[in-house]
Amino acid sequence: MFQLLADILLDRSNAAVMVNYVSSKENLKILMNLLRLFAANQNKPPDIVNILIANRAKLLCYFAGFKTEKEDEQFEEDKAAVVKAIVQLELIVN
Known about the structure:
InterPro entries: ARM-like, ARM-type_fold, Mo25. GO terms for molecular function: protein serine/threonine kinase activator activity. This is MO25-like protein. It is built from six helices and no strands. The model has no long low-confidence stretch (mean pLDDT 87). It has helices spanning 2-10, 15-22, 25-40, 46-54, 56-65, 73-87. The protein has one domain. Helices cover 71% and strands 0% of the residues.
């Protein structure tokens, strides 16, 4: 599903659609909620754990600098939970 979305958005003929999509706060919220689900999943498959670990530094840097337009206590709690889950990940060797 996401590969199809990426293919559509990254096609040059859809540049205006891509700009519109990535300019939407609602689309970002959806993606952040999905990331939260992946990070909070207690039964993450090894491949998911390893991908999150491989991107841990980037994710933590992103979350450290991510600010909302207004204070949102629920968002801050969710963000803290995601950061904690990512920090605590351990590499799974298959």
